[in-house]
Description:
alpha+beta; Endonuclease, Chain A; 4-stranded mixed sheet; 3-stranded antiparallel sheet; elongated; DUF559; DUF559 domain-containing protein; AbiEi_N
Amino acid sequence: MSMSALLSAATTTHGCVTTAQANALGIGEGKLRQLRREGVLETVHRGVHRVAGIPHTAHQPVAAALLALGDRAAASHGSAAHLLGLERVPRPLRPQLLVSGSHRSELPGVDVRRTRTLPAKDVCVVEGLRCTTGARTIIDLAATLSAEDVIALVDDAICARVTSRTWLHARATALSVGRSGVRTVARVTHTDAPGVFWSWLERRFDQVVRAAALPPPVFNTPLPGHPHIVVDALWLDPPLVVELDGLRFHGSPAQRRKDSARANEIALAGYPLLRFTWQDVVGEPQRVARELRAALHA
């Protein structure tokens, strides 16, 4: 029997262990009952126990559910979104898991959803936990979100490098039959769709440009000859850079100092620069269009 080995095993799964793991370490059923009576272990699900003294993590309920449901399961939907850092999706009150196969699986306190198959290309490991990939997570969530929220989530995921536009389009196309909202994902990631956006604000700015019949810029691209300077929007002829100051990424004093240094780099590279805030793009699109037109025809 090795309590230290049991504790070591629990630290890799957010403080949880299975009865099978304990048995493999020489801890039999009698000792497990004793450890539960003494408060060393607390049973979370049948065959899954939480180890006292190991710090609780936000993902511990998901870890426990995964251990209970086995290798056919993966964190999905809102639980997967939070593992992947997609904070636009509210954290679910109960762990959300996807289980492959025809066998019906239920677990108290867990939102278990079934899928016929869950191929390896739709599963990754985050924080030591099986989780649906960024692409599969967006596809699964699409049915629960408005079209606008689906598009915003796509932009968030691409910005965070959780998935790529090409791969997301491929999986959305493959999984579109019978799935609500997935056609929106496929449409906005198609090669003929507007450029790669890293935020909802960039997408709205593109709408302002198109509505004003201005030439479209390239979004999120490095300046020629300056690969370390990736700008929000770039026109080459005539040269013009636009930076968009969304509240999410540009609100802190430290970020404003960084933005100032970045503006100097762009100017020194020889590119005129315009900056627009969220309020500008959303509240005064006509003024934004006028200033763009003046800069592009100067």
